[in-house]
Write a structure and sequence with these properties.
With 497 residues, the chain is mainly α. The chain has 18 helices and 9 strands.
């Protein structure tokens, strides 16, 4: 009996030994495979995706140092931000929390608090006047910092002070706030002139910045809203309204061009990153420091799972880093995706075929969120920017721009004829050159329901329910998928429903 147990034990140990030996040989084989198969391709030509050389800028022409210094003049507490946001909200009931105390302000009290805030920032507006006279925007080198990673080619990854970019959003709020108070005092033409002057400056800073490394942020949101409100509700002559329409058109074009350039700058960032020593990158900065620039239309939330998988394989298979992270192949994959994105995503309006294809690519991209360790050049395949999801935001912004222009055109028509137009074609050619097409369906114009006072788009799904339009116009409670369709509608004054 003991001999039988001994024989069984020997067989079990032999089996375990075979399994262990097989696992060791498999790991060794995989490591050898990764080393052999980890050959990179030749460097790709991405010259068409890199920013062009920037001519020197005279200090007196550069608005960025002025705006940067102006942050020292900005006086904006958390309570001030809350007050400004609420005051600009047309639905505000003057309920506010100040210094931890909830209160309901009278109209005069709210206006007095706003006037106090504007008076406190008088020096800031003087600085903005200086910046508005500067024709160019470029970050000086001393305002950039270098990611402290030693590169094998002497190239470093540059980044900018993101905090400054977000400070400029406060400038947008204060400019709109001062214009609102001017409008309330019956000085609407003066308010419009200020909004146009400061708006041009903020648009040039946001969308014509020559640095190439800044985050694309919309710094003219409050200014645009206030201009639209003035055109719709104030007693402005048609010349002022035409100037507002021209500014909205100009800023929308600048933003579209900036988003295209943003794709190119992404390749420039990545080309710098890939020139760094891979061992240093993996050992010290991957995954937390990999592809960290934050873009408003890009999400890398699934990158954490991918990073864990890559990290595991790098730890267990010495050759995997060479196999998966191949700089030239990765750059070629990202460059190809960039070119494809610019040809598809920015080619507005979308045809129904293009919309269907982009939606399918978006769904396919979601399936790529799982890490596939044996896919060649995994990082190049799974870490390129998500153009499959970006098309929704591009189309939505185009609709917002068109809705703002239509709100101004309808207001001009109403002033002249005493009523809203029965159809958008009545705005042409006096107030619009052409009726804008639906960004999500090139076969039809933007939707207009004068009976409901609603402007709408069919949206990414390609349709909109009539009952959604009717319910939204009545301000009924809405739930589920209908809430998504609300984002595809505006009132004829350009406001959200």
């Amino acid at each position: 009996m003991s001999d039988e147990k001994y024989a069984i034990a020997r067989k079990v140990l032999k089996g375990i030994g075979i399994v262990v030996a097989a696992a060791v040989l498999a790991m060794a084989g995989l490591s050898v495979f990764f080393f052999i198969a980890g050959r990179d391709i030749n460097p790709p030509d991405v010259s068409d995706l890199l920013p062009p050389p920037i001519p020197p800028v005279e200090p007196s022409e550069n608005m960025v140092p002025v705006l940067m210094d102006a942050t020292n003049l900005l006086v904006m507490t958390r309570s001030d931000n809350r007050l400004a946001d609420r005051y600009l909200d047309p639905k505000w009931n003057r309920a506010l929390t100040l210094d931890g105390v909830s209160c309901t302000l009278s109209e005069a009290e709210a206006a007095a608090l706003v006037d106090k805030l504007l008076a406190t920032n008088a020096a800031l507006f003087a600085a903005l006047d200086v910046a508005a006279a500067c024709p160019r925007a470029r970050y000086p080198k001393e305002l950039e910092f270098t990611l402290p990673i030693r590169g094998i080619s002497g190239t470093y990854q540059y980044n900018v002070l993101w905090s400054f970019s977000f400070q400029v959003a406060n400038y947008d709020t204060l400019v709109a706030l001062r214009a609102r108070r001017l409008r309330e005092r019956g000085r609407s033409p003066e308010a419009v002139d200020e909004l146009l002057r400061y708006g041009d400056m903020l648009a040039r800073f946001s969308y014509e910045n020559e640095s190439g490394v800044v985050e694309l942020v919309r710094h003219v949101v409050c200014v645009i809203n206030e201009l639209r409100e003035a055109a719709v509700y104030d007693d402005l002559d048609d010349e002022k309204c035409a100037a507002i329409d021209a500014a909205l058109t100009r800023w929308a074009k600048l933003r579209e061009e900036a988003r295209r350039r943003g794709e190119m700058f992404h390749v420039w960032r990545l080309s710098n990153l890939l020139s760094l020593d891979r061992g240093e990158l993996y050992g010290r900065y991957f995954p937390s420091g990999f592809l960290m620039p934050k873009w408003e239309y890009r999400e890398f939330g699934w990158l954490t799972d991918l990073a864990k998988g890559v990290e595991c394989f790098i730890r267990n298979y010495p050759g995997y880093g060479r196999y998966a992270f191949q700089p030239n192949r990765t750059l070629a994959d990202v460059a190809a995706a960039t070119r494809k994105s610019c040809n598809q995503v920015f080619d507005l309006p979308y045809s129904s075929e293009t919309r269907t294809r982009l939606a399918a690519e978006e769904s396919a991209h979601e399936e790529l969120s799982q890490f596939h360790p044996f896919s060649r050049n995994s990082i190049g395949k799974y870490c390129f920017f998500d153009h499959g999801r970006m098309w929704r935001g591009v189309g939505a912004r185009a609709f917002d721009d068109a809705a703002s222009r239509l709100a101004v055109a309808i207001a001009r028509y109403r002033r002249k004829h005493g009523d809203e137009p029965a159809g958008l074609e009545e705005l042409v050619p006096e107030f619009l050159d052409v009726v804008p097409r639906d960004p999500f369906d090139s076969s039809r114009p933007i939707g207009y329901r004068p009976d409901l006072e609603v402007i709408y788009t069919v949206g990414p799904e390609g349709y909109v329910y009539d009952q959604v339009l009717e319910s939204a116009a009545r301000h009924d409670g809405m739930q589920g998928d209908w809430l998504q369709q609300l984002m595809c509608m505006r009132r004829i004054d350009g406001r959200f429903l």
